[in-house]
TrEMBL record:
Residues 234-263, 328-359, 374-395 are annotated as: Disordered. Its cofactor is Ca(2+). GO terms for biological process: polysaccharide catabolic process. It comes from Streptomyces fructofermentans. GO terms for molecular function: hydrolase activity, acting on glycosyl bonds; metal ion binding; starch binding. Residues 376-391 have a biased composition (Polar residues). This is Alpha-amylase. Residues 1-34 form the signal peptide.
Length: 991
């Protein structure tokens, strides 16, 4: 509809009007007469319309008109431009018409249509002022009035964009053509553009990087005004100061670092200190080392912990630290800290990570202590050995070890896996700690896992020699209930009276707990004499030390205050440990309180705690592990990850192995969101995808305050105002370079697919739904079940049946993400069994049962997905339907790059689980069409020859369409453009 008010038919213009205008023009000059007839006519039949704005005071003015005998312009017409004070104008070409009918409006529904009669105008210069039409130029002899100006500054400091465009529309006007107009670099992190918006006094705008990544204020666009405006982290500041104006030079130095401590471990020294403060922020620290024969050494570092390795034996080294800001101002040197090295460590030289794209490597997940026993001398049952029922099965909780894992690497390789995820390796301490999540000494590998010739370093080296990666499970959130050695270990009340002598071991000051060595007085490897005290310890903060509580144990024994560690007991130093239980699992307390009595929640916002953990995990980085699986990642604020732990990982890997190795060091977090929603019950702070992004704004320098600020800010932003990404998606059929400029450094376990794998179609639909909120979902770690849960938060191992397992695997191995399998699922090991029941039932009856019997015998593999030889029970295991299915899936995935690293799309595709994937890099261009179980039709695809990797079927596409019949449950088709054809031999499902 053209407009909202009635419009009378255009009036025929009186002839006298034309004659009058012609008389004013006079006879044509020879020069004009020399012009082509058409051009002279056009110039004669134009009209410059002036409109008086002072009375209306509109922000913008539009001319809506129809040449005599012609059609009306589209509402609201054409925008008029500033002419001189109180006047706007527009020159229109009338063609052969001798006049025009016109109305005026403000572009927002307010009109001047001459009381419903419209304005009848002629040619030449015409004025319309308060309803009166005249023929003159009201601006003759005056300077033209410039349009209103809007100067816009846009910050890319958070996004990291290397260019910026502004796409805008003045109020009442039209949008610029996408992507808008380029902005100019103004100063570091800021881009600028001054816009002429005519008579408008405001505009709407969005910004983009010119490569498809937009900031449109979460679809609301930005409302800007004239003058100078800044846009930073979605915050608009009007009448802003020029952010690039010259500032007073920064001459204030940071404060000197304090609390510098140094501790030696063999020929390495770990140095840590408290963070310095500065008015503009500390940029880095300089560590100066003296001592030894190598002279003075100065090292720059970004964190507050430094691991100095490869030092001389039995040598004293002294360290001082200075803080520097971005302007180069240096603090005074700290007080010195000295440590003396010991003998060189007996471990082999550190390994080197393989450093390749982690998406190429399917992951096999093992509980090391439950996989395969290569050395029975390090088996340990612990204090719950008999009570749990493990003793009756001759099945100690610590049974498998690194030696057993090294012996069966060829089994894992024969299945086709090129990465092994191992449970935490640090020394644990609890009554039931075989799984590794009760860390006590983060700097020491648990001796119950090591053997002569089969240390953790030996495992890493052996895996690398076979082209296999080791991903180490790491815990930053909590320690054991007994604290963390070297940080804080609480003393509990204990009296060795007639009731409790069975529990409290006699103190042996010359003995150090390592979980393996038997303490001679007690005869136990799970000795606890160093943990308790009858006398109240110096500095005790636990209330009512040793007083009876009035309660009794199950055995009828008197219970005492301070007898058991807990967050509210006061036994843990507040600086190092949080002091509460979680009450709201989607609240802030889920990130700052205890999960369980066995998991003492570390105060990860404390510098000393951060340094302790960074220093510990630097050790394992130095050993050459290929990545970290991060346990309980959601229980640490994202801002703490982004500020401290993730940069420290990147810095250490870069320092030791180079930038390319750091790029491919794979960190994937367990953000346990056990819901089917895209956002975890509406809480962005507790949703998996949230952890893949950098911060969007600056918070307080204090990490504790920053955590609270971030939680509030992001919850206020809501789920609709979170960053989005196209990194996992094709543009039509084309691969595009992903934008990782806002990537945090942490990828995620795909909890939403995991939750919905009761049915593959359901998992597929749910997974796709979240991908635009993940920085790059092609790195998602995808599994059906694990050592914690099955689908739908089931407490049992998956028991959907062999056909369903095959279908799940076919989807996992072809859809985006990195397929991951929990040990034994290749034979449906312990299906339907409760995964974990603690020491209340034997491990043999659970989903964490010992697997060694199924891999007994001999196996060798020189290629992934194929056994060169196998004998004994392991040969039977490899012959099982799902094991054979996995072998071929891994062969196909390894041969088709699109299935490893490709972006995907479902555009133009019919079918239940059907998609197309493409990966392009250098000479590699891999394009694949996939359908799982059901049939599919693909339209709009590139023409050419497609070969199915499963059957070898060849299709020639000439009309952009390919139809595929349903292959059947668990089966699939993978048609690859110019592909290799059939890969591997038919199996129970792929055929």
């Amino acid at each position: 509809m053209r407009r909202t008010f009635p419009c009378p038919r255009p009036l025929r213009r009186p002839l006298v009007a034309f004659v009058a205008v012609a008389g004013l023009l006079g006879p044509l000059s020879p020069d004009v007469g020399a012009l082509p007839v058409e051009k002279a006519a056009a110039e004669a039949n134009s009209a410059t319309v002036f409109y008086y704005t002072k009375t209306k005071n509109w922000a913008s003015t539009h001319l809506h008109y129809a040449p005599d005998g012609g059609a009306w312009t589209t509402v609201p017409g054409t925008a008029m431009e500033a002419a001189c004070t109180d006047w706007v104008k527009k020159t229109v070409d009338l063609g052969s018409a001798s006049g025009l009918t016109a109305t005026f409006n403000n572009g927002s529904g307010t009109w001047d249509n001459n009381g419903g009669a419209d304005y009848a105008l002629g040619t030449g210069s015409i004025t319309v002022k308060d309803g009166v039409v005249a023929h003159s130029d009201p601006c003759a002899g005056t300077e033209p009035v410039e349009g209103n100006k809007a100067t816009v500054y846009y910050s890319t400091a958070t996004t990291g964009w290397t260019t910026a465009n502004i796409h805008y529309a003045p109020a009442g006007g039209t949008w610029t053509a996408s992507p808008g107009v380029g902005m100019e670099s103004a100063c570091t992190g800021w881009w600028k553009r001054t816009l002429d918006i005519g008579t408008a006094t405001s505009l709407k705008a969005a910004f983009n990087n010119g490569n498809g990544v937009w900031d449109n204020n979460n679809s609301a666009d930005y409302a800007l005004t004239t003058g100078t405006t800044t846009v930073k982290d979605r915050t608009v500041t009007r009448d802003a100061e020029d952010p690039c104006a010259a500032e007073e030079p920064d001459t204030r130095a940071p404060t000197a670092p304090t609390g510098v401590t140094a501790s030696a471990d063999h020929t390495s020294i770990v140095l840590s200190w408290h963070a310095s403060t500065d008015d503009t922020g500390v940029a880095k620290y300089q560590v100066t080392r003296t001592g030894g024969t190598r002279g003075t050494v100065v090292t720059d570092i970004g964190s507050t912990v430094f691991s100095d390795t490869g030092l001389e034996e039995r040598t004293a080294y002294t360290y001082t630290v200075r803080a520097l800001d971005a302007a180069g101002n240096a603090s005074p040197a700290s007080a010195g800290a000295t440590a003396t090295t010991g003998d060189k460590a007996p471990e082999p030289a550190a390994g080197t990570p393989l450093g390749t794209d982690p998406r190429k490597d399917p992951i096999y997940f093992v509980l090391t202590a439950r996989f395969h026993d290569g050395d029975s001398s390090n088996n340990r049952g612990g204090s719950q050995h008999t009570k749990s029922g493990n003793a009756a099965n001759d099945d100690p909780m610590f049974r498998g070890d690194f030696k057993g894992l090294v012996q069966k690497l060829d089994y894992i390789k024969a299945l086709g896996f090129s990465a092994v995820w191992v449970t935490p390796v640090v020394l644990n301490r609890s009554d039931y700690d075989y799984h590794g999540y009760h860390g006590y000494d983060f700097y020491k590998v648990d001796p119950r896992l090591e053997s002569a010739g089969a240390s953790y370093q030996d495992l890493i080296n052996a895996a690398h020699a076979k082209g296999m990666k080791i991903y180490q499970d790491v815990v930053y959130n909590h320690s054991s209930r007994w604290g963390a050695k070297g940080l804080a270990t609480p003393k509990v009340y204990g009296v060795r009276d007639s009731q409790w002598i069975w529990y409290y071991d006699e103190k042996n000051d010359g003995f150090e707990y390592d979980g393996l060595t038997v303490e001679p007085k007690s005869g136990k490897s799970y000795y606890n004499g160093d943990l308790w005290s009858t006398a109240e310890p110096s500095g005790n903060t636990c209330l009512n030390w040793g007083r009876p509580t009035g309660g009794k144990s199950a055995e009828g024994y008197t219970l005492y205050n301070c007898q058991w560690p807990s967050p509210t007991s006061g036994m843990f130093p507040k600086a190092y440990y949080h002091q509460c239980w979680i009450g709201n699992w989607e609240g802030e307390d889920a990130r700052s309180c205890w999960l369980h009595e066995d998991l003492a929640d570390l105060n990860t916002e404390n510098t000393t705690v951060q340094n302790h953990l960074i220093g510990a995990y630097n050790k394992y980085i130095d050993m050459g592990v290929d990545g970290f699986r991060v346990d309980t990642a959601v229980h640490i604020p994202r801002v703490t990850w982004n500020r401290r732990f993730l940069p420290a990982i990147q810095e250490r890997v870069t320092q030791r192995f180079g930038a390319e190795a750091a790029k491919n060091f794979f960190v994937f977090g367990e953000v346990a969101a056990f819901v089917n929603d895209k956002w975890n019950r509406g809480s962005v702070n507790h949703s998996a995808q949230f952890y893949t992004w950098k911060e969007r704004k600056e918070y307080s320098a204090d990490d504790g305050a920053a955590a609270l600020e971030q939680f509030t800010y992001e919850n206020d932003q809501g789920t609709g105002n979170q960053p989005t990404s196209s990194n996992a998606f094709l543009n039509g059929n084309s691969y595009h370079t992903p934008d990782h400029s806002r990537f945090s450094g942490m990828h995620i376990i795909d909890m939403r697919m995991h939750m919905n794998f009761g049915d593959a179609q359901n998992a597929y639909g749910n997974g796709k739904d979240s991908d635009d909120s993940v920085n790059d979902a092609t790195y998602n770690v995808v599994y059906v079940d694990s050592h914690d849960y099955g689908p739908n938060k089931s407490s049992e191992r998956y028991s959907g049946g062999t056909d369903a397992w095959a279908e799940n695997m076919s989807l996992m191995w072809t859809f985006r993400g990195i397929p991951t399998l929990y040990y034994g699922s290749e034979i449906e090991f312990q299906k339907g069994r409760k995964i974990d029941c603690g020491p209340t039932c034997p491990l043999a009856t659970t989903g964490r049962a010992y697997y060694g019997a199924h891999v007994a015998g001999s196996v060798t593999a020189s290629e992934f997905g194929k056994a060169d030889s196998a004998s004994g029970e392991v040969a039977n295991t490899l012959a099982q339907p799902l094991a054979r299915h996995l072998q071929r899936l891994n062969q196909i995935r390894r041969a088709v790059p699109a299935l490893q690293s490709g972006q995907y799309s479902t555009e133009g595709i019919s079918g239940g689980m059907a998609f197309k994937r493409r990966y392009t890099s250098g000479a590699t261009d891999s394009f694949a069409l996939v359908t799982v179980t059901g049939g599919a039709t693909y339209t709009g695809i590139p023409n050419g020859t497609y070969r199915d990797a499963v059957t070898g079927d060849v299709r020639t596409v000439s009309n952009g369409t390919l139809a595929v019949a349903a292959p059947g449950k668990g089966n699939l088709r993978v048609y690859v453009l110019n592909g290799p054809g059939r890969i591997g031999a038919d199996g129970p499902y792929l055929k």
